[in-house]
């Protein structure tokens, strides 16, 4: 396993990590979740990603039981939670980024995950109804209390992250260390365009999600089928419609041909492509089957195959590179 610093921080994350969105607490059994975490940990994965909104809090409960059951040394792993969507019980002050919810959600996550502190704590979305100043102060309070070690954002705009950094500097508080954006061969603008100044000037770290575009870049949907997969789950219709658009499928079919020529599974080619970007601190893997996870955890072997020519060929197929201002 390769380890990368989380932006300019001293924290080192495994370049491949394991997430629990859509799987833990709903798509897979607790026993399979336990097996997946064990496989990941034994392969050198040290970061496990979670959120209060995943399976309405059940995902964190499942992960907490697994961590406790394995009795891993606390220093050997990094665990996250995210605040915004709330858990099962919605209502005033039970969602969003108010000081009240940020702090109560953290306490809730600590109980569910059965840990004394969260390594990473993310604002899962921007909250238009709460001043960024209030959220930055709340995060700083949790840092001072030792309940979280680093805080960051997920799916925030560059302008919103800059505002959080400005507030932190104005009041001598600790600003955001990392952002968790979607990043893959089909979704590239934030990481390759919008955040460029944040990487250069502030050393922002990234823990990217959906590197396989909800499975589309794994090759299993090129036939247009999504049976018995996460896209076939109740409530995922919006994702299925977006992911399986005809134009995307055509590109992925061509990418599959390129991967076949390299004798590499499409999933590993797509994951390795994400890892080629130095702005990526860690690639969060999702998995529902042990074999699938074992295979994807060997992605680092593929990196040497991604020569300049191969990268150029990929660009020629995907045509998704953002056009930078002034070019």
What does this structure look like?
The longest helix has 17 residues. The chain has 13 helices and 10 strands. The model has no long low-confidence stretch (mean pLDDT 94). The relative contact order is 0.13. With 327 residues, it is α/β, with parallel strands linked by helices. The strands form 2 sheets. It has an 8-stranded parallel barrel with strand order 3-4-5-6-7-8-9-10. A two-stranded antiparallel sheet has the order 1-2.
Secondary structure blueprint with pairings:
Elements (H helix, E strand, L loop, with lengths): L2 E3 L6 E3 L1 E4 L3 H5 L2 H13 L4 E3 L8 H13 L7 E6 L15 H15 L4 E6 L8 H14 L2 E6 L4 H13 L7 E2 L9 H6 L1 H7 L2 E4 L28 H7 L2 H17 L3 H10 L6 E4 L4 H7 L11 H11 L9
Parallel strand pairs: 3-4, 3-10, 4-5, 5-6, 6-7, 7-8, 8-9, 9-10
Antiparallel strand pairs: 1-2
Helix pairs in contact: 2-3, 3-4, 4-5, 5-6, 10-13
